[in-house]
TrEMBL record:
Zn(2+) binds at residues 293, 298, 300, 306. Its EC number is 3.6.1.-. GTP binds at residues 212-220. Its cofactor is Zn(2+). It comes from the Bacteria. Residues 121-268 form the EngC GTPase domain. Binds 1 zinc ion per subunit. The keyword Aminoacyl-tRNA synthetase does not apply. This is Small ribosomal subunit biogenesis GTPase RsgA. It is found in: Cytoplasm. Residues 112-270 form the CP-type G domain. It comes from Sphingobacterium suaedae.
Length: 364
């Protein structure tokens, strides 16, 4: 079932177990104040409303005023979240509560120092799609992987458009450190066996999000997996030879007989929204070298006895990966410092409001 065709769906078609509903989620709901209301999963986020798939059909819902006031932008529902809602006639409803999030993929919002944006939640696998043309960029893949690992989501690197001519030795050398950390698949919509292999990697009840830059073919891949036109695509640009960016929203798509797919718009930038620098060590295959450093707090720059620098000098670690490591670490430190300052200011504001309220109460 595609949510694009929600008006044609019969309510009985919405089997929430296929969308990932399970006993743990049911227990969370039963412990909430809204256990008697219906629940559903956010399928599409529009500017002012949400499409919610439920056992009663697909509803167009708005947020309750309390949720608008109490929740920050990154805490409000995103694609994949499970919510409870008050239904009304004509497929309308009000979202009154959201179950606690799990396995949520975030990114730092463009143009912001600390504001993060929720991309998708309750994700089991994240397919980082890169096309084997001018889009191929292992540095971009690395930052996706760091954020995905931080969210406790299983990452998979998908090298798409494998029918193109490319320097195989160069590509495999560039991603050798990533190959030791996660599965790497080659796909092409012109090679059915590769699509079958990708489909088999998504189990029933699992949710898989597809992320990557514009024009890498995420939407075409999803259509091939579903064996039908579920999401809108466009032809390759004649001037650049690259795919045109098509998706403009994050959207749930049900893959027949298997899991749930989430299509996402292409991104030019993917800023890290994490304060866990150790994740970088693991993704970039630095951790094993770092264990042999003389100093436990080695920054891997100028300290004596640095095993990471030694690996770099011996050619065991590429200069590109080493430079990427320090760039990502600087980005995480900057985000962490800004986040701490943001929390400090929020704490100070809360204390000020509390003091003002206390003085008013005393003056009565």
């Amino acid at each position: 079932m595609s949510l694009n065709d929600s008006t044609n769906n019969h309510p009985s078609d919405a089997n929430l177990h296929r969308y990932g509903w399970n006993d743990k989620l049911d227990q969370l709901k039963q412990a909430s104040p809204y256990a008697d209301l219906p629940h559903g999963r956010i399928a599409i986020v529009h500017r002012t409303c949400y499409e919610v798939v439920s056992s009663h059909g697909v509803f167009q819902c708005e947020l309750a005023g309390r949720m608008l006031i109490e929740k920050s932008a990154d805490e409000q529902p995103c694609t994949g979240d499970w919510i409870t809602f008050q239904p009304f006639d004509n497929g309308k409803g009000i979202v009154v509560d959201m179950l606690p999030r799990a396995r949520t993929l975030y990114r730092k919002k463009n143009g912001s120092r600390t504001t993060k944006q929720a991309i998708a939640s309750y994700v089991d696998k994240a397919f980082v799609v890169q096309s084997l043309d001018g889009n191929f960029n292992p540095r971009r893949a690395e930052r996706f992987m760091v954020q995905i690992r931080e969210a406790d989501i299983q990452p998979v690197l998908v090298l798409h458009k494998a029918e193109l001519e490319f320097d195989q030795a160069h590509v495999m050398q560039a991603i050798a450190h990533l190959e030791r950390q996660m599965p790497i698949l080659r796909t092409s919509i012109h090679q059915p066996d590769s699509i079958t292999h990708l489909r088999e990697s998504i189990l029933p009840g699992e949710t898989a999000v597809f992320v990557g830059s514009s024009g890498v073919g995420k939407s075409s891949l999803i259509n091939a997996l579903c064996k039908s036109q579920r999401v809108r695509t466009s032809e390759t640009s004649r001037s650049t030879g690259k795919g045109r960016h098509t998706s403009t929203r994050r959207e749930l798509v049900e893959m027949d007989g298997a899991g749930i797919l989430i299509d996402t718009p292409g991104v030019r930038e993917f800023g890290l929204a994490t304060d866990a620098p150790d994740t970088v060590d693991g993704v970039l295959d630095i951790a094993d070298f770092a264990q042999s450093c003389r100093f436990a707090d080695c920054s891997h720059q100028h300290e004596p006895g640095c095993a990471v620098r030694e690996a770099l000098d011996q050619g065991l670690l590429s200069a590109q990966v080493y430079e990427s490591y320090h760039k990502l670490q600087r980005e995480i430190r900057h985000y962490t410092a800004s986040e701490h300052e943001k929390r400090r200011q929020k704490k100070s504001l809360t204390k000020l409001v509390h003091d003002v309220k206390k003085r008013k109460d005393m003056g009565r």
